[in-house]
């Protein structure tokens, strides 16, 4: 991840599929899908039993700059398609071949870009080529799957694709406008803040607005059009400490409406606080490896649970022999302290007024997104499911997600960690100090912000995770004094770490960002309280020291444009 409550029920009912006056895309997709579903067959071979077509229409406006100047300002429009064609049947099909999407026997792969002009013929020709290509690939893959099954000693227990009722959901078209001109002025003004700090040698301010319309039709009868808007702003500052190591931090804002972005005054204030924080980090000590009690802020806790627990509860991971299967076969068993509950709910638009990046109504397989109770009182209750069944769960819960290029798999949307033993922030900090002294450790650590994390879930290598703090303090065991530190990472194994939770705070925070995994980069959120861990292991961060810039920054004479 380089980086509420609005709840609603989506009824599985059939509604008339009437595209808007200007929306020719869904009818064109439907016509080409129906033509191929009825006629696409190679003599002597199977018909495809399932076909799905997706088109994504993306409007993106962005402004970026630094040093009081705009560097980029543009509007970009693009459309691209993806096609899923399966041979076999629901119980076993061509998707079981892990090399299906990388079939080297086919020398030509058609482009997936579709026209931004209103051209039904242009769109249908792209879909025609893609479906032909995927059908031939699926035929070859299905032969491979059947061949492997001959010598496979394991009894087949799960199907390749869940059977779901056709779903029809057409959202109204929305007029989308984003005026870049006012934001160009804001970018200039905010980025000028960093000119007051010579030690900050690089910085950036970026604002982006995205309107994403997703179209999906499949051979089962599903017809979907959804419209989502995303607004983002990022302010970043980079400096170098005296030891030559980079020090950087950022402030980010995410929203579903333009009003969610900060005012000029707030952005300037946050930029100046960011600059001062980075300057302080330049002088901070590098933390040496140690195993000590750790207190994480709500934001850091959200990232931690996303990496250590969330990815391991993605349903498709329970099937692959290449996965570590951390929680496979443990439904009903305790995997966390009994005061912890976890659920994932894509239907929440916000948490206490703060927009959630992980919100959506329908997933990328045409299944309504629904809340999934993953952990109740520490016991495993479910998995994040797309349409790929796992042992014990044969239906999707609307978490099949994709970036539009890859086949969807079960992924997180908005992961919520709840606790029943909450204490105040003051009590939590005192508990940290008490635990440090009880263990006889020299200090504890408070992690305020974390850049992101990585985790290994595969059976190849260690079942481990790594978090990369940006702002953290070392809390002295004797005096309780907090000292800013840098240059370290928190590491460990998930099962050990999650069972060392001692207590949680009574205030919840939101982490918004993007998660990159097998089906590409998707918007996600996490909601969690502050959390105290009895111990965590730290290690030195990557060490790549370099000499600072030889000259001081240039100074522009007064009266000229800075």
- The number of E-state strands comes to 23
From the structure provided, what is the oligomeric state, counting identical versus distinct chains? single chain
β-strand percent reads 35-45%
The low-confidence parts are 1-21
Helix count equals 7
Mean pLDDT: 89
Q: Gap between N and C termini, in Å?
A: 35 Å
**What string gives the helices and strands in order?**
HEEHEHEEEHEEHEEEEEEEEEHEEEEHEE
The largest pleated sheet is described as: 6 strands, mixed
Shape: globular
Query: What gyration radius follows from the Cα positions, in whole Å?
Result: 26 Å
Task: Estimate percent helicity.
Answer: 10-25%
**Structural class of the secondary elements?**
alpha+beta
Structure description:
This protein is 20% helix and 35% strand. By secondary structure, it is an alpha+beta fold. The two termini are 35 Å apart. The chain is built from 7 helices and 23 strands. The protein has helices at 25-39, 120-150, 180-191, 264-282, 298-310, 425-439, 494-498, and strands spanning 48-66, 69-87, 168-170, 200-218, 223-240, 246-255, 285-286, 291-296, 340-344, 350-351, 354-355, 372-376, 379-380, 400-401, 409-410, 414-419, 422-423, 443-455, 465-476, 482-486, 488-492, 501-517, 520-540. The longest helix has 31 residues, at 120-150. Helix 1 (25-39) crosses helix 2 (120-150) and helix 3 (180-191) packs parallel to helix 4. The chain is globular.
